[in-house]
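Crash report, auto-generated. Payload:
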Amino acid sequence: MLVIMVDWSTDEPVYGQIARQIRARIASGELPAGSLLPSVRSVASDLGVNLNTVARAYRILEEERFVVIRDRAGATVAPPARDADGAIIESLSEELSVVLARRRQAGLRSVELRRRIGGELASLRERGEK
Amino acid sequence: MAPNIFFFMVSVEAVVIGGLFLLYPRISRRGLLFGVYVGEERWDSGESRRIVRSWQYGVVLWTIVSVSLGMALFLRFRSPVIAPVSPLVVTVGCLALFLRAYFRARALAAPGPPPPAVAVLDAPEARSIFSTLVLLIGVLGGIIALSYAAMHYAELPDRVPTHFGFSGRPDAWRAKSFWTVMLLPLLTLVMGVGLGGMVFFTARAKRALRFPQTKISVEAQVRFRQAVARFLGVIALLVTAMLTLGSVSSVRVGLGLDEGLSPIMMALTLVLLVFALGRTLYLALHFGQGGARLERGAGNAPLTDGLADNRNWVLGSFYINRDDPSIFVERRFGFGYTINFGNWKAVTFFVGFMVVLLALIVAAIMKG
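Recovered output after restart:
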């Protein structure tokens, strides 16, 4: 069963915790493209948090193109875009270099880094073809 | 009814109330002690057992005292006014005992931040056509009762029956007025909407989940929620049938078309009483509160969400969470569901229903 958790003892805002965990589920393939996310009301009721908090998390995921929100059908996990959006890719390149730099700083060697990136890309490709 | 039989029934009622209070800690969810989330391990501790034992002795003793008191007063004064004494005394006493147990449980509760809240991403959401249907039938029954009375208002004679004896024959008549004719049909509508709404919200009540054994707890509590919604649904349908029949029937008696209420009414009342009590006991013992007895496989997996968060509960009984959109939540102590007192929709529904119902009862007493 796929769950997300809200930890009341951290400084991270609740909407951030919700968005981060759903994003991680999508990245890991546990929530493949096309899966229906529970309604804002259902998540808010389960967690005992405000509707706006969950709606804000969903909007962030929509802006990041992870989900598509349709008023009646609810939110579904979005498939990868067909045409590359140059502006978004440009804004993400700094994020990528930071992640790579942090891994290096943590002591990961270039060879190992390359191997891992290759592995992640392969699994993304595999899921995309299914 | 003979005063002796009436008094006997009231004494039985007092014993039933005491018995239910005795039962509640035994059917509660693992981790919940007298409305306090103390954590699964402390729930199993010696101190926890001592609190429960002292509660059990207290309730048994107090029930005996209340029934004896009621009996002594009845033998002395022989007045029906004495009747409510024992149920009232037993309830008040048990509430005091509850408060004592509640504060002891609070002292036992694990310190530190509340446990995390958990939401399920891949469980089907509550959809219950049955509960929507019950609500619609409740409204429909009210409309039928109201329109039947309104349609025949002009034809009714100057005096209409306002009370019926046990045989179903009218034993009190009053001058025709809006209230004497429309009270029962109005009550039919109010009860139809109120009970139907309860079924509707129960079927969509907040989930109480455990983590990591989430699947077991989701399934247990979904089964419990369905069973309670079905149970309340049958009660709502029976009450609607009874009141609709009663409304139409009393207009027909007023018109001289029938001599008394249909005997089906009496049969339905009996079925309703037996079903309500018997089924409550069965559900409580079979499922445990919230499906506690079905989620035993989850072992010591901690409870999450609203039920585990002591910050949202006042005196272990009132759930007040302004952010939570849930209308109904599971009781922490007792059986079934309660409302989220922090949600204005829930409060409006609950207070509205109570106020209208009380107003109708007051009107019934004052107008005959």
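Post-recovery validation: The mean pLDDT of chain B is 89.
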